[in-house]
Amino acid sequence: MKLFAIFGDPVSHSRSPLMHNCVFTHLHYPACYTRVHLQEGAQLREKFFTLGLSGANITVPHKEAAYNACDEIRGFANEVGVVNTIINENGRLIGYNTDADGFLFAISEFDNIEKILILGAGGTAKALAKRFIMEGIKVSVINRSAPRLAFFQEIGCQTYSWDTFKTKEYDLVVNTTSAGLKDDNLPAPLEIIENVLTHTHYVADAIYGKVTPFLEQAQQRNIPLKDGADMLLGQGVLANELFVEHSLSKEDIQNEMKKSFLL
Length: 263
Ligand code: NDP
Fold this sequence. Notes:
This protein is α/β, with parallel strands linked by helices. It contains eleven helices and twelve strands.
């Protein structure tokens, strides 16, 4: 029996255990998935091995620490220095990033996305921004604090802190901050939020399972929107394929994982 886990702080809200256990149980894969509340990202590697894990997902705020904990990084995670999935390959930790492709899957129903504003500059924002740029999308980023913006400038994004922000027209505004996850905060001052919401066609939030104060503002203006549930599904399917070493079909994984959203 293999053991998998999600590490995060907070982590009690995470639906990943339910999603992955649904796949393991219904597709008869001998594995179990749990959650670990981890406050210090630097302890990730030690905890991983102490628990005897075969793999893990990493959530807020440890995705950059997860990159540093790995022995080898594969694929898109190399582009951004952010890891959300780790596989134990014969005692070596291999890091991947499935968030960005999960998010592209999530917004595939929105048409003509050419200009995106990202709220936040953490691990998730990095992965999305880089992936959007690779797709030829123009990306702007606004964050509460300035130091994290350097990465985004280097990859060609227009960047702002709250006090330097100037609104443009956007096709999509995405909240990747953790504001609204465990509190009732908006991702930026109300004045900025009101401003950007009058200049976008679509809105998305990486947070799932609740209507965040940000989504509430979009709802009041009848802007087509989505929360982070489809992103969660998209990244989860890709992570599960890695966990089971591609021994199950992607379609079966997706079907079983979708069912967990009804629980
Ligand atoms: P990080 O900790 O790496 O980044 C958090 C970001 O949020 C930083 O830019 C930080 O700003 C900003 N922030 C935090 N609190 C506030 C606040 N009160 N007001 C404004 N900005 C704030 O987190 P992650 O990138 O890993 O995750 C971000 C969110 O995305 C989480 O809510 C997570 O649950 C969600 N997520 C959802 C996924 C899904 O599958 N649906 C997948 C991945 C993430 P500063 O730099 O100033 O500190």
